[in-house]
Design brief:
Layout lengths: L3 H20 L3 H12 L25 E10 L2 E10 L4 H14 L1 H5 L11 H10 L8 H10 L1 H15 L1
Antiparallel strand pairs: 1-2
Helix pairs in contact: 1-2, 1-3, 1-7, 2-6, 5-6
Length: 165
C-alpha cells in the first residue's frame, strides 16, 4: 500500500534519474527539492506543474501565474505576490530547473557546478542555500533531511522495484 507522497516520488524517480544522468546533477536533490517545495506533490501551485517553485523573472519567456506566497525577509515571514513559471508537465519542470540554475550566475558563484559538489546530495544542497534558492536559512538541512528520510527511502525502493519488474 502506498500513499500520495510515495506515488509522487515514484512518478518522478525515472525522470529525475534521466535528468541527473544528462546533466550531472544529484537525482537525490532533484527529488528532495520537489518533495520539499510542493509538500510531496500536494501543494503544486495550481495550473503550473512548477514542482520547484521557480519564479518567473524578466528573463522567463513562457507562461506565468501570480500567487500570494510567504518569503522570509529580515528574519520575518512576509506574504507577497510573486510570479511563477508555468510548465506543460513535470518533465519540462525537471529540465528547466537545470537550465534555470545554469543560467543564474549566483549558483555558479555558490559552487553548485564545482567538481566534488555537483552530483552530491550534501554539496548541492549547501550550494543551493548559498545561492539563495530559498529564503529559508535552513534550506540545505531541510533538503538533506527529506532526501534521507523514511518516506523518500521507501518511495525510492518502490520506484526501483518497479523499474526492475
Amino acid at each position: 500500500m502506498t500513499s500520495p507522497k510515495i506515488d509522487f516520488i515514484v512518478s518522478l524517480y525515472g525522470p529525475a534519474l534521466a535528468c541527473a544522468e544528462k546533466t550531472g546533477c544529484s537525482w537525490q536533490v532533484i527529488l528532495a527539492q520537489a518533495a520539499l517545495e510542493t509538500g510531496w506533490g500536494q501543494k503544486v501551485l495550481v495550473g503550473t506543474n512548477n514542482i520547484f517553485n521557480i519564479k518567473a523573472d524578466r528573463a522567463w519567456k513562457g507562461q506565468r501565474k501570480t500567487f500570494n506566497v510567504w518569503e522570509i525577509i529580515n528574519d520575518k515571514k512576509e506574504w507577497m505576490d510573486q510570479d511563477f513559471r508555468v510548465y506543460p508537465d513535470y518533465a519540462s519542470a525537471l529540465l528547466d530547473r537545470v537550465e534555470f540554475l545554469k543560467s543564474n550566475p549566483r549558483y555558479t558563484k555558490a559552487g553548485l557546478f564545482d567538481q566534488g559538489i555537483m552530483g552530491t546530495l550534501e554539496g548541492e544542497a549547501r550550494a543551493l542555500q548559498r545561492g539563495k534558492y530559498a529564503t529559508d536559512p535552513n534550506y540545505a538541512v531541510a533538503v538533506i533531511a527529506v532526501a534521507r528520510g523514511r518516506t523518500m527511502q521507501r518511495a525510492i525502493a518502490i520506484a526501483e522495484s518497479k523499474m526492475m519488474a
